[in-house]
Design brief:
Blueprint lengths: L1 E5 L9 E6 L8 H10 L1 H7 L10 E5 L7 E6 L10 H19 L4 E4 L11 H15 L5 E6 L2 H11 L5
Parallel strand pairs: 1-6, 2-4, 2-5, 5-6
Antiparallel strand pairs: 3-4
């Protein structure tokens, strides 16, 4: 089941939340910073045991102080006008995150933010189409998939893609 909600991803009680991480994989601003603050310093310590996180790839860590047991980190593409395979790379973020969750074995519920739409500047409408398409492809493999979005504009875009009315 695919759900679209407006809220704070760090408060969701799901098996895993997805972190829109940077390639440096050391915490930062936006969703990444919020997840690191909520999870506590143990998350950064675990991340520091890894090298860089290539754009589009995903790594699973523990969730530490989060209600979710795990965090799946994926480095989204920075928008550079659309001519550097940004759409393909963003889709790969979702596919890699789902693959990491399936490979882990005990992740049945998962929540995603709107990857790359903040400081990375990916156009929100394009990102919504990619995200919803990739999430719908995986619905049969997970009990619950949540798009946890920060603002009403993004919620409206996601709901428009799946044909839901915005309340």
């Amino acid at each position: 089941m695919l759900e679209i909600v407006r809220g704070d991803i760090t408060t969701l009680a799901v098996d895993a939340i997805v972190n829109a991480a940077s390639e440096e994989f050391r915490g930062g601003g936006g969703v990444d910073g919020a997840i690191h603050r909520a999870a506590g310093p143990e998350l950064l310590a675990e991340c520091e045991r890894h090298d860089r996180l290539p754009t589009g790839e995903a790594i699973v860590t523990l969730g530490y102080r989060l209600p979710s047991r795990y965090v799946i980190h994926t480095a989204g593409p920075m928008w550079r006008g659309g001519g550097r395979h940004e759409h393909r790379l963003l889709a790969h973020c979702y596919r890699s995150s789902f693959a990491a969750a399936r490979e882990h074995g005990d992740i049945r519920t998962i929540a995603f933010p709107a990857i790359s739409t903040g400081i990375y500047g990916f156009p929100k409408a394009d990102a919504a189409e990619i995200a919803v398409r990739e999430m719908q492809r995986e619905e049969a493999h997970f009990e619950r998939i949540v798009a946890c979005l920060f603002d009403d504009e993004t919620v409206e875009l996601y709901r428009a893609v799946i044909g839901e009315e915005f309340d």
